[in-house]
Design goal:
CATH topology of the largest domain: Aldehyde Dehydrogenase, Chain A, domain 1
Mean pLDDT: 95
Order of helices and strands: HHHHHEEEHEHEHEHEHEHEHEEHEHEEEE
Shape: globular
Helix content: 40-55%
Low-confidence stretches: none
Structural class: alpha/beta
Number of strands: 16
Oligomer: single chain
Radius of gyration: 24 Å
CATH superfamily of the largest domain: Aldehyde Dehydrogenase, Chain A, domain 1
CATH architecture of the largest domain: 3-Layer(aba) Sandwich
CATH class of the largest domain: Alpha Beta
């Protein structure tokens, strides 16, 4: 571990020096650097695809599932999409320097809150090599320095993408050390990264539950993350039947593997059409694990166990139960939710407002699918992830979420009496 700590210290010191440059870089410089990085990704296509071929070959030897191999795979079309995503970030409005608010005091002082970068961001992620480019682009566009640590399955792909991105950054005159990658796949390197207080300002994990749990458990650096996406949809008694069916089926089945997918369906006991709702889910290919009241409605449902209410399936499975009104639904969400995204479907505005006010979630929706829990859908552009914590950023974290602010006070010689 000592060697890893020494290596991490050296990287952190270089990153802090690079951050001093990045924090003052102009909008045009950062945009040009990312545009050059996108060009370098396209120009480096043969090297990147060859590296990915090696990762895929090793992944098959290790017995990775088809789903994991699909996440890992890069072809010409996917590489072009990665480069295009970097170009899109280059065109986003620069949050750095934005004046959040300004006030004029009676004594003549002018006080402003101004957006500034967070500093050195450490990003730990698994499997998907596109995260190397996405995370780098978002971190650099917001004026930060970035230290990346990708998963061992994608080590060759990550290195090739990082090399191309770095070449683009250097060509635009920004420091190479603004984007660094931990090259070793040794898990102890992650431990050194998590303990790099004073060098790394914030850690962002992107990956499975075990990775995020380890980061949150071991980190001595602030963490921006969500552990589970146990998202609920509550069908109120006054819900429109067509809306309820469309929203529930979309929330579960559009993409079952995303963190905004519905995992628990709560149906008001006075909702008049629970049978067609369950039938629509079952006929869409979803397994429904329900309580006794749910199971009486359709013989194709199966009994829910206690752990089902606390499970993020990321699969075509949903837990379902009948609840005695909005208060009962809110109590269930408070006991079993993960503060990610929760939905109320109702035509009663008073019920909707009660749910919106009381649900302690990063994202609360009324009459909409939880699958909209995505930075792009919020108009934020690319996102680094969804935060379910209470401090700093919450919900989809995009460029603005990778900044903080400082107070600037402008005077004309005032002294405090």
């Amino acid at each position: 571990m000592t060697d890893h700590i020494q290596a991490m210290t050296a990287m952190g010191e270089r990153a802090r020096a690079a951050f001093a440059v990045m924090s003052c870089a102009s909008d045009a410089q950062k945009s040009a650097a990312l545009s050059a990085a996108a060009t370098a990704l396209r120009d480096g296509q043969s090297d990147i695809l060859a590296a990915n071929f090696r990762d895929m070959d090793q992944g098959r030897d290790k017995g990775l599932s088809e789903a994991m191999l699909d996440r890992l795979m890069i072809d010409e079309q996917r590489l072009d999409a990665i480069a295009s995503a970097v170009e899109q970030v280059a065109q986003l409005a620069d949050p750095v320097g934005q004046i959040i608010d300004r006030s004029n005091q009676a004594n003549g002082l002018v006080m402003e809150r101004i957006r500034v970068p967070l500093g050195v961001i450490g990003i730990i992620y698994e499997s998907r090599p596109n995260v190397t480019a996405d995370a780098a682009a978002l971190g650099l566009r917001s004026g930060n320095a970035v230290i990346l640590r990708g998963g061992s399955e994608a080590v060759e792909s990550n290195r090739a993408i990082h090399a191309a991105m770095t070449a683009g950054i250097i060509s635009a005159g920004l420091p190479e050390d603004a984007l660094q990658m931990i090259q070793t796949t040794d898990r102890e390197a992650v431990g050194a990264m998590l303990k790099a207080a004073g060098l790394i300002d914030i850690i962002i994990p992107r990956g499975g539950k075990s990775l995020v749990a380890r980061v949150q458990d071991e980190a001595r650096v602030p963490v921006l993350a969500h552990l589970d996406g146990i998202c609920h949809t509550y069908i109120g008694r006054s819900a429109d039947q067509d809306k309820a069916i469309a929203i529930a089926v979309n929330a579960k089945m559009r993409r079952t593997g995303v963190c905004g997918a519905m995992e628990t369906l709560l149906i008001d006991q006075d909702y008049p059409a629970p049978g067609p709702l369950l039938r629509a889910l079952l006929e869409a290919g979803c397994e429904v694990r329900g309580d006794d009241a749910i199971m009486e409605l359709d013989p194709r449902t199966v009994s829910a166990e206690a752990e089902d209410w606390d499970t993020e399936y990321l699969a075509p499975i949903v837990a379902a139960r009948m609840v005695g009104g909005v208060e009962d639904a809110l109590a269930h969400i408070a006991d079993h939710g993960s503060h990610h995204t929760d939905v109320v479907v109702t035509e009663d505005e008073a019920v909707a407002n009660q749910f919106i006010q009381r649900a302690d979630s990063a994202i609360v929706m009324w009459n909409a699918s939880s699958q909209f829990a995505d930075g792009g859908e919020f108009g934020l552009g690319a996102e680094i992830g969804i935060s379910t914590g209470r401090l700093h950023a919450r919900g989809p974290v995009a460029l603005e979420g990778l900044t903080t602010y400082k107070w600037v006070v402008r005077g004309t010689g005032q002294i405090r009496p």
